[in-house]
Structure formats: structure tokens, C-alpha cells
Amino acid sequence: MTKIVKVSIYSIDFTDLWKFGPKLYILKHKMKSAMEKPRKQVLLTTPYREKGEEYEYWGSNVSGLIRYTYDKRNSNGLRFLKKNIPEIDILEFPSKNEYKRALKRGYDVVGFSFFTYQIPRILEMVEEAKKENTPELWAGNYGALTYGMEEKFDKIFVGYSEEEVAEELGTKIDELEHPMIVDYIGTPMGIRGFPLAVVFTNRGCTQNCKFCQTPVFCSKPYKIPLSSIEKVVKNYKEVGVSEIVFMDENFGMYKKHAEKAIDILDKYDMNWYPMTRIDLLDKRLDDWYDRGFSGTLIGVESLDQDSLDNVGKNIDVEKTFNVLERLEEKNSFVIGYYIIGFEDDTIPKIKKNIRKLNDYSLDLVQICIITPLPRTPLWEEISEKYGIISDDWSKWNTKHLVWDHPKINQNEMRDVLEWGFKEAYPKTTFFKSPIKYYLRKVDRFGHFKTQAKMIKDFIISNSGVKTKINDC
Ligand code: SF4
Predict the structure, then answer these.
(1) Which residues pair with 130 in a beta bridge?
(2) 370 lines ligand 1 (CB under 6 A)
(3) Taking Cα atoms as reference points, which of 275, 102, 95, 89 lies closest to residue 198?
(4) 463 alpha carbon – ligand 1 mean position (Å)
(5) What distance lies between CA 221 and its chain's CA centroid?
(6) Architecture field, domain 15-54+73-168
């Protein structure tokens, strides 16, 4: 008697089909391939860079070699994508040859993550991809917001886009996972001091500063799940990393969430440095200090109240002075973001304010020339009122004047920027920063533990921390 077996193709476990004989085994393969839409092979890459082209915080803001380095070799965005969509391939800051070799693998899609100033290099890479007949080209990161990019790419991703990329590949992300991202603080001679790991607790920003692209890039701010934060912090701890930078656009924007993230860091004995706002730090500094706060990356932006008000940066300059003083008393490491070239700025006014900023102990001042980045309210305002004078996107790195300033020309702006780099980073800073770093740690751990930690940090950072993308 023939036994009739009824199976649903949706519930069957194909690995059991061999039991029904060779004919069914062949059927298994036919059905399986018919049901599975072949997945696109995707390569996502940053711009290539050759030796000496590395971007790093100190190198871009200090003239001379008596300085530190933040040796950044990871792409935060691409690491998140790879962690959450393991089937894609990523290339982080490859050399030109590495990129060309990767193209030979014949990807269905090559996607580019870039900033506006990197557009010329990216367009060169696009041409290479076309030569290899890559069928589809994608663009992402802040540079993809630039006008005209829609003509160069088949698809533009706005925002962090893990879910959108997963959808393209026919998959879904249940909960956003946080990848390990470890870089190093060192010196231009290549000697590293300690590893610095990145943590994000939220994305986007609820403020609306006129010059900032974040409100367009990530128009609906959201939190990174605490479970993902805890997992990655635990992984950092296991590989010996104990210094964390919160790279949120605005750490502390979700107050309770930020406090819970700090609890996690405190639990694992981490020292941390948030990228945040003066007003938030004003309220939370004393409490945070007792829980591992060791410094900050902070938007000072300007010491001129009218300029701040004009660009919608709701900061009281007096509060800035007060917070900078308190940070100094607590031996906190401080990177300050500072903007020059506001509408009402003149050369003497810029110089006066930078000198004033020098009264405070900042470890690095990142000086930028105000730039009306695409799709910001400032772009609208400046292009209409004064006009844009540079269509060379490589100059849109905040170190060039790209619009027709009413009181300062391009050469004068370049000279005052150079002057500012020297003025804001006197040679003594190089020696003061490690002393502050040591004193801050002593305050938390005592001399013996601090010295042991520094030796350990030195050893592990110079031998390299293992951070495989998908086993964390
Ligand atoms: S500059 Fe900072 S505070 Fe202002 S919108 Fe951008 S991320 Fe938010």
C-alpha cells in the first residue's frame, strides 16, 4: 500500500528529505532555489586613503608634531552595518589597490559612506566601480545629503540605515547590536598610550542648530538598546579596554537612558568621555564625575553671544566659562569645538576670543570655519544673502571659507585659522594633558592602581586590541 505523505513547503525541514529517497532529495534543491531569491552581494566602503592621508583630531587642528594622535582606523557607521547585517562585506579606509582588488570580486552593489569633502575621491571610486561593471551604486553618510548626489548613485540612504540596508537584502534586524570599535590615543611617532573604545547611546539630536546637518540626517532621534550597550561594554572590558568615548551627537539628550548607560559603565569600572552640550554638563558634571566621567568633547562654538544666538545655539557664554573652569578644577580632559567666521566676525574679534579661550585648560581646540553644509538652514540663509564661492567639494571640510564673507576674504580666513591652531595649542599643552590624565585617574583609583593601569594600557594598545567585527 502506498503511504501518502502530506507536507507543507512552509513547515518542512529540508534536511530530513533524504529519508524519502534520492528523487525527493533532488526536489529539495529545486524547491529551495525556487523559493530563495538570490541575495545581492554587497560591498560597503569608505573613501580609500593612501599613506599620510589619515584624518585625525590633532593632526587636523595642530601645526607641528609635538602633539597627540587619535589614530582612527574604524568606520563607526560601517561597523554598525556589518555587525547587524553580517552578510555584507565592508572595507574601512582601504588603500586604492585594496579597493580595486575588492571590485574584481564582482559585487552586485557597491555602497559608499562619505562626508561632503570626500566627494571628489568618491566620484573617482564610482568610476572604478563602473569600469568593473558594478550594476548598482549606493551612497550613505552625511555626504550623501549633498545636492547632486542623486544623479551619481542608484540609491541614497539618509541616516544610519541598518534597517533599510537589511530590507534591501530581504532580512530584518530584531534589535540593533553595537559593534566593538576601538582606536588609540598615541603620538605621531606611532607610540600608543591607551585604547579608546566608542559607545553610542542614542542617535540624532533634538536641538536645531542652523549649521548642523544632524537634524536632517537623523530626523527622528532614537535610543540604542541598553542590552546592546551592556554587551559591547562587557566585551571591551574582556579585552582590557577601560576608556570609553560616548560618540552620540548629543549625549544625555535622553536623560534617564543616559543615566542607565552610565550605570553600565560604572559597573564595569570604565572611565568615560561624552560628546555633549555645555548646558547638560553644567547640570550633571559633579554627579557624573563620581561615576567615571573623565573629560568631554564639547561644543563651545563661540564666545560671542550674538553669534551663538544667530545660529540657534542656545548656550549662555557665561555658563561656558563656568563649566570650563569646573572641568579644569576636576582635571578633566577637554576637546572643544570652536567655530570662526560668523557673519559678524572680524579678524581682531576672532583673535580676541581665541586668546580668551586660552585662559582655560583645553587639551585640544578643534577650530572650524563656519560652513553652510547642504540641506541646513544655514545653507539657505548664506547662499541667498552672500553666495557660495566654492564648488570644489574637497574644500568643504570646515578648514576653508566657501562662502562670500562680508568682512573676511579666503586668504585672511586661512591665515587666521593657521594662527588659531598655533595659539590654541601652545607646546605646554602637550605636557599638561598627561599630567591631568594622571591626576584624574589618581583621584579615582589612587597612585598604585593608576600606574598599573597605565602600564597595562600601554602594552595592550601597542600590541593591538582584538575586535573582530562579528564575534563581539
Ligand atoms: S550642533 Fe550639536 S546640539 Fe546642535 S543640532 Fe547639531 S548635534 Fe544637536
Answers:
(1) none
(2) no
(3) 275
(4) 36
(5) 16
(6) 3-Layer(aba) Sandwich (3.40)
* Cell triple for 368: 572650524
Residue closest to 452 by CA, chosen among 266, 460, 233, 197:
460
Gap between the Cα atoms of 466 and 464, Å rounded: 6
Read off the DSSP letter of residue 70.
Answer: E
C-alpha cell at 258: 543616559
| Residue spans per domain, the chain | 15-54+73-168, 182-462
Rounded to two decimals, the pTM is 0.89
Task: Give the Å distance between the CA of 309 and the centre of ligand 1.
Answer: 14
**Closest to 288 (Cα-Cα) out of 247, 322, 255:** 255
Q: Residue 249: is its pLDDT beyond 90?
A: yes
The packing angle between helices 347-357 and 410-424, to 10°, is 10
Architecture per CATH, domain 182-462, reads as Alpha-Beta Horseshoe (3.80)
Q: Do 239 and 177 form a contact (C-beta atoms < 8 A)?
A: no
Q: Residue 469 has what pLDDT?
A: 52
Helix (H) / strand (E) containing 163: helix 162-168
- Per residue in 140-150, pLDDT (tens digit) is 999 999 999 99
**CA torsion angle for 134, 136, 142, 144 (degrees, to 10)?**
110
- Residue-wise pLDDT tens digits, 267-281: 999 999 999 999 999
Atom 6, ligand 1: which residue's CA is nearest?
A: 212
Q: What is the position in ligand 1's atom list of the atom closest to the CA of 249? A: 7
- Cβ 209 under 6 angstroms from ligand 1: yes
Largest Cα–Cα distance in the chain? 101
Q: What are phi and psi of 155, to 5 degrees?
A: -145, 135
The more confident residue out of 208 and 4 is: 208
C-alpha distance across the termini of the chain, in Å = 55
Measured distance CA(96)–CA(211) in Å, rounded: 33
Question: pLDDT value at position 97?
Answer: 96
> Which stretch of DSSP H or E encloses residue 254?
none
* Residue closest by Cα to atom 3 of ligand 1: 207
Query: Looking at residue 189, what is its pLDDT?
Result: 87
Q: What is the rounded distance in angstroms from the CA atom of residue 240 to the CA atom of residue 344? A: 49
Q: What is the pLDDT of residue 330?
A: 94
Q: Is residue 250 within 6 Å of ligand 1 at its C-beta?
A: yes
Point out the ligand 1 atom lying closest to the alpha carbon of residue 277: 3
